[in-house]
Amino acid sequence: MASEEASRSPRRSRREPEGRAPRQDKYSVLLPTYNERENLPLIVWLLVKSFSESIFQQHAEFGGEVLNDLYFICGINYEIIIIDDGSPDGTRDVAEQLEKIYGSDKILLRPREKKLGLGTAYIHGMKHATGNYVIIMDADLSHHPKFIPEFIRKQKEGNFDIVSGTRYKGNGGVYGWDLKRKIISRGANFITQILLRPGASDLTGSFRLYRKEVLQKLIEKCVSKGYVFQMEMIVRARQLNYTIGEVPISFVDRVYGESKLGGNEIVSFLKGLLTLFATT
Ligand SMILES: Nc1nc2c(ncn2[C@@H]2O[C@H](COP(=O)(O)OP(=O)(O)O)[C@@H](O)[C@H]2O)c(=O)[nH]1
Ligand SMILES: [Mg+2]
């Protein structure tokens, strides 16, 4: 698909008002957790490492002029927002420990009492995000933080509104899934490509970077719950003419804990897809 090129707009970066100091970007990672006690310390460690060790070149804007190549920062400004939904395995205690270890400016625990679903977990997390970019990802180590610097680079390269990790392009791939799950995921993407022509190759993935205001707008527009939610985000993004860049990622099935994808989710995915087809 010519998704990336087709959706790329000539729009240039927004300019800062005259005389204001250069703004440093900040990335808020939303990490929803439900029974991720074993995974959480590792994912947080990998995130901190990825953010701290990236030497980044960032364009600076002085008095409305964009000065590329002049402004270097070491490390990336970030925060990790953990949205735990009362996990019975004690994930919250682990998160509290991590908050102590890394500091409450880096790890923000924003728990909820009970399991209220992934979609509302993002909405809840967004309310506490102070970055101008938001990264959403799973906490089960399926999404490796090493790709985040690539997401950031891609976003800057095309000044994209959204950068989506894709398992279905370039070096992207899926490891550890059985045939059934591969067929479900491929099938869902394939049917949706035909029905909705969304302009991105991985619709059901949930490893993405958004401009904060774009994510805010999309979340307001999205009506679906469950797995179809990620797909609706991309479909609505296209409707609203947001630009989407893609970064190939390898997705590794979780080692610890259980997936929450069941038969019910598949049925509701198909229902959601048809609703989107009928209403967009
Ligand atoms: N806060 C919160 N997190 C959830 C909920 N359901 C799943 N998650 C988290 O969302 C991510 C994706 O869920 P997962 O079960 O791995 O889905 P799968 O990768 O599609 O099998 C993981 O980090 C889960 O811990 C929920 O109801 N609330
Ligand atoms: Mg998972």
UniProtKB/TrEMBL annotation:
Pfam families hit by this protein: Glycos_transf_2 (PF00535)
Principal location class: endoplasmic reticulum
Cofactor(s), by name: Ca(2+); Mn(2+); Mg(2+)
Its EC number(s): 2.4.1.83
Disordered: annotated span: 1-22
GO annotation, biological process: dolichol phosphate mannose biosynthetic process; dolichol-linked oligosaccharide biosynthetic process; GPI anchor biosynthetic process; protein O-linked glycosylation via mannose; response to oxygen levels
Entry function: Transfers mannose from GDP-mannose to dolichol monophosphate to form dolichol phosphate mannose (Dol-P-Man) which is the mannosyl donor in pathways leading to N-glycosylation, glycosyl phosphatidylinositol membrane anchoring, and O-mannosylation of proteins; catalytic subunit of the dolichol-phosphate mannose (DPM) synthase complex.
Protein name as catalogued: Dolichol-phosphate mannosyltransferase subunit 1
